[in-house]
Automatic annotation (TrEMBL):
Necessary cofactors: Zn(2+)
Domain of life, per lineage: Bacteria
PROSITE patterns: HTH_ARAC_FAMILY_2
SMART domains, sorted: HTH_ARAC
Domain HTH araC/xylS-type: start-end pairs: 85-183
The entry's keywords: Activator, DNA damage, DNA repair, DNA-binding, Metal-binding, Methyltransferase, Transcription, Transcription regulation, Transferase, Zinc
Protein name as annotated: AraC family transcriptional regulator, regulatory protein of adaptative response / methylphosphotriester-DNA alkyltransferase methyltransferase
GO molecular function, one term: sequence-specific DNA binding
Amino acid sequence: MTKLSETKMWEAVAANDARYDGAFYYAVKTTGIVCRPSCKSKVPNRENVVFFTSLDEALHDGFRPCKRCRPDLGAHYRPEEDIVELACRLLRGEYHNPDILAELPERIGISFFHFQRLFKRVTGCTPKEYLRRIRIDKAAELLAHSSLNNTDICLTVGFRSVSGFYTAFRQHMGLPPKKYRKVREIGELRHDCL
Ligand SMILES: [Zn+2]
């Protein structure tokens, strides 16, 4: 790889350009912290910045890895995407817990506000919308393939109230749960006759 000029590296830092992650690191003399180019922390003053081609050199010079962009966790670590991926995994695994949404930011280790914004930016929807989609899909599955009644299904998939479940279900599926079950039954009867 051709050696990057300091101007180029500075441009990458100012733009939080993740394409340069792993290619170089920058440290800030005033804070003693070393970062990846993509770090979302405040862009430092140019005169305080030193560049390194390896993290070891920076650590050797006494700089500490940034807690936000974690340059110590490998070149391909993508902090923001990884956080959202973890959140999605937890939501998919624990959708039936009515409190999962409130618990999530703390379990992931970021503030509620930061989590909301980050999730929306990466996925295009809010954590609430994402979770609701999962719950409705599970409810639809149970309506089609189990004999549980609406209240049981509502609680099983993590809704707190039956009315909330009804409204959400209708919004997403275009018809109420009972009707959905009936339509699915008829659909399957037809399928069996063919
Ligand atoms: Zn950083």
